[in-house]
Amino acid sequence: MTYCCALRLKEGLVFISDTRTNAGVDHISVFRKLYTYGVAGERFICIQTSGNLATTQAVIGHLENHLALGREPHLYSVNTMFELAGLVGQLLRQVIAEVTSDTLEQSNYFCSLLVGGQIKGEEMQLYNIYPQGNFICATSDTPYFQIGESKYGKPILDRALTYDMPLDKALRCCLISFDSTLRSNVSVGMPLDAMIYHKDCLLTPQGKRITEADPYFQQISRQWSETLKNGLQDLPEPTEDYFK
Amino acid sequence: MTYCCALRLKEGLVFISDTRTNAGVDHISVFRKLYTYGVAGERFICIQTSGNLATTQAVIGHLENHLALGREPHLYSVNTMFELAGLVGQLLRQVIAEVTSDTLEQSNYFCSLLVGGQIKGEEMQLYNIYPQGNFICATSDTPYFQIGESKYGKPILDRALTYDMPLDKALRCCLISFDSTLRSNVSVGMPLDAMIYHKDCLLTPQGKRITEADPYFQQISRQWSETLKNGLQDLPEPTEDYFK
């Protein structure tokens, strides 16, 4: 499986993806699931993928192929992030239709994508593209999307994340969401890829690969465990009626 | 959906279930999913259910019918918890087979059950019964089982719960697991049913129905939110390389 999370906040965008893929528990590999594209001063695009690896790679392959051959519409010719979401959705539908037939179950080849970024003159946008090729857009009410193994890491986002949160605080919240998921589900694995985009900067960040040896991640992971253990310890004793 | 959790610890057993059932989002009802049976001084049995409501009610119905008619094996005639798990599994298979045929997809009628308790002269046991009727048993390495919407509330159990934990601490951990699930998934809803059994007491506890107005649950829910928010606040700032 996979866990990818993306935030669209007042100050910018945050993207984090894991890198584990598996075809059965005895066939585990590391594959990057976070792709970036950009033209300095003009656009920044980040795509995260979850689901069938051949499908996700085919969609990314077509996007890059269109770009290389100048076949429009492509990543650098679309006028808006909305048009890009439409292009990705259309390629996704096409890839799934090509690989399946009456004898192959479509859902085995499904994937989901998160597409975020900013094009000059436009607001930042973040889209969640469904396997059917349609999509939804993040808002200030719901500033985050998750794909893949999303449930383990959802409670902390639901409790703590807000649209107005500074990027460094939101990053911590998102890293804790990953830490919880990594501990509870072996199909999500290190290293992680993280990328933080500051609103209107229109430059592609270098991004950060977070390995198991990363001192900062180790530190917050340890500290968070202590926070939870001490927090449980500090809860008041249950009232007597719980033990009747 | 549903969320049920059961713990088999050194000092006793803890069971908590939600009560929400839904057939579509516009058809939500309250149904108890925690059933207890017992003979004072001889046996205590608790069954929790998740899945198709007609299937779970049919299994419970057959168990109670067998008992009422004295048709052996029944809840009070089985010699061990292992025999009881076998009986529940067999009834479950039978109920699903009766309702389905070549034209009905079996998995739509699936349910899972947790069966825990103690019979005089035996250790306490906790079984997780699969829709296929087979089952697994909790151990000191893995002292808890969940059925239904289990993922949201799993991280806190994975981090904090141990076999040696006192019952009141384990209860708090389990209530926090429910609080996280309730906040992130509307298909799991209050009130909750909680039941704590002390090892070797061989009496059926009265149990506690936890409503939204329950002062203790409100208090720990509020305090836990503060713990998480303050804990996030106290995490060290991300190192610079995260922002490159």
From TrEMBL, chains A, B:
BP term (GO), one: proteolysis involved in protein catabolic process
GO cellular component terms listed in the entry, alphabetical order: proteasome core complex
GO molecular function annotations of the record: peptidase activity
Keyword list, A-Z: Hydrolase, Protease, Proteasome
Transmembrane segments: none
Name the UniProt record assigns to this protein: Peptidase
Organism: Acinetobacter sichuanensis
